[in-house]
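A reminder from the course coordinator: this example appears on the midterm review sheet, so study it carefully.

Given structure:
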């Protein structure tokens, strides 16, 4: 049942994306900057491919500000690119979809990481210790499954003896268990891509099936009312 619901929701999102217009199929250029840090923790001695030695990297949410010329918005985002630094000044990015860069398998892993025990919901709810730990673990797990080998002890993203032990244990628990999630994808994603700075992922809640049904029913009622008005005016 969950697998069916997940496919239903994803199909609905895909249809919505297709009907948005062919002009945005390859993405839209925006200006983006990192504005502040959100929930998360510093890693201690973590090895990333961004530099040759281990360092005390931030692991967690980065708040980004995005402007498209007509509006400016701030989002909570996670980095998908451990190979480059973020920018505190506006830089040109392309807003696009995950499918423009990643395989369906990788996208499925991202969806499961966010949805497993609603990891993302926990990471963004308040500023509690639990939220900070969830955000830090989700960031490190994303680097592992998207741009590394999925194992904390090897590869370009790996722990050292000085790495925050709580972060390591939380991340390992997530990596060990997220693939068991079989429910619907709880989030849809916007992907901000740059050739010179780290790429960002922004999540938005997917409407629950009941909410989606109500929305579709409402659209149906509006359609009937419009047809009646046309018949009456004729």
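Designed residues:
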């Amino acid at each position: 049942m969950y697998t069916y619901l997940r496919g239903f929701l994803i199909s609905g999102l895909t249809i919505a994306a297709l009907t948005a217009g062919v002009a945005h199929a390859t993405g839209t250029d925006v200006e983006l900057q990192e504005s502040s840090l959100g929930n998360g923790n510093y890693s201690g001695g973590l090895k990333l491919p961004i530099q040759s030695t281990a360092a005390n990297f931030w692991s967690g949410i980065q708040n980004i500000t995005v402007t498209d010329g007509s509006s400016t918005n701030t989002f909570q985002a996670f980095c998908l690119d451990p190979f480059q630094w973020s920018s505190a000044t506006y830089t040109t990015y392309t807003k696009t979809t995950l499918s423009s860069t990643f395989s369906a398998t990788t996208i499925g892993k991202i969806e499961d990481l966010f949805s497993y025990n609603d990891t993302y919901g926990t990471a963004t709810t308040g500023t509690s210790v639990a939220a900070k730990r969830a955000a830090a673990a989700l960031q490190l797990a994303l680097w592992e499954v998207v741009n590394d080998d999925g194992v904390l002890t090897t590869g370009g993203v790996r722990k050292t003896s000085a790495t925050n032990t709580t972060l390591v244990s939380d991340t390992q628990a997530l990596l060990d268990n997220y693939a068991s999630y079989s429910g619907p994808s709880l989030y849809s994603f916007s992907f901000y891509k740059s050739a010179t700075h780290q790429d960002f992922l922004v999540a938005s809640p997917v409407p629950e099936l009941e909410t989606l049904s109500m929305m579709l029913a409402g659209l149906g009622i509006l359609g009937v009312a419009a047809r009646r008005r046309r018949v009456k005016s004729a």
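Residues 209-233 form the longest helix (25 residues). The first strand starts at residue 28 and ends at 47.
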